[in-house]
Amino acid sequence: MLLSVHIKREGESPVVSPLSSEDAHHSDRYQTFLRVRANRQTRLNARIGKMKRRKPEDGGQVCPLCSAPLAGSEEEMSRHVEQCLIQTLTSPLFTPTLLYISLDTSQ
């Protein structure tokens, strides 16, 4: 005979009840569902937090590669982006098949 212990909620005492094998299967599936849902919510909340941190507070420019806020003259901002690009291209994690850059500005 299988026993189930329900999680104690505020004002309730734990309840122990016998479960059939079918009920145990559904309970296991439900527990898995709850765990997957909690993990998904954690991932989504982390992603939302990252997106909020990326947005500039003052509406200024950000580096398209590292998302750092850019300040200074156009030349200084361009220099920062170029340095980030060089770092990206020389990184051991760089995958050349994923990058397509068109340097032709006549289009």
TrEMBL record:
<dbReference type="InterPro" id="IPR031824">
    <property type="entry name" value="RNF220_mid"/>
</dbReference>
<dbReference type="GO" id="GO:0016567">
    <property type="term" value="P:protein ubiquitination"/>
</dbReference>
<dbReference type="GO" id="GO:0061630">
    <property type="term" value="F:ubiquitin protein ligase activity"/>
</dbReference>
<dbReference type="Pfam" id="PF15926">
    <property type="entry name" value="RNF220"/>
</dbReference>
<dbReference type="InterPro" id="IPR052443">
    <property type="entry name" value="E3_ubiq-ligase_RNF220-like"/>
</dbReference>
<feature type="region of interest" description="Disordered">
    <location>
        <begin position="1"/>
        <end position="24"/>
    </location>
</feature>
<feature type="domain" description="E3 ubiquitin-protein ligase RNF220 middle">
    <location>
        <begin position="2"/>
        <end position="87"/>
    </location>
</feature>
<protein>
    <submittedName>
        <fullName>E3 ubiquitin-protein ligase RNF220</fullName>
    </submittedName>
</protein>
